[in-house]
Specification:
It comes from Aeriscardovia aeriphila. The protein has about 80 residues and is mainly alpha-helical. It has five helices and two strands. Strand 1 and strand 2 form a beta hairpin.
Length: about 80
Amino acid sequence: MHEREFWILLEEVFGRAYGKSLAQDEHLTKLDNVTASEALAAGIRPRVVWNVLCDQMDVPDPKRWGSQTVAPPMPVPEQDLYSD
């Protein structure tokens, strides 16, 4: 997943205003309490950020990938958080 896809899914799954608010204000406990925006800026993979956000917001797997994408959830191993 590219960061662009993260933002597209965020808007589709949560709506434009609420999604933007979540990205800026929701602290992700599994990612050292940073927000999604901060995690992306720090280089954490967008797919990891997306899965952590969806897990924290209790978004079920079938709904977290939007209407156009079907992808399985990805575990969040510590060694695979950051982009190459």
